[in-house]
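Form 7-S
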Amino acid sequence: MNSRAVLTALPVLVLSACVSVKTEPIEVKPIHITVDVNVKIDKALNDFFGDLDRKAANP
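Output:
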């Protein structure tokens, strides 16, 4: 019975020894991001010219 288990497991062990695993390196590429700064400029211009707009509204 013991030899039967060995004979049954032997092909599995032999075939599993032939398995090869190929790993490829992971390539990390840079990500280009464009940020729209119009909102910041618009807010800065409103703050800068806000005093002039208030003076024009209240003559």
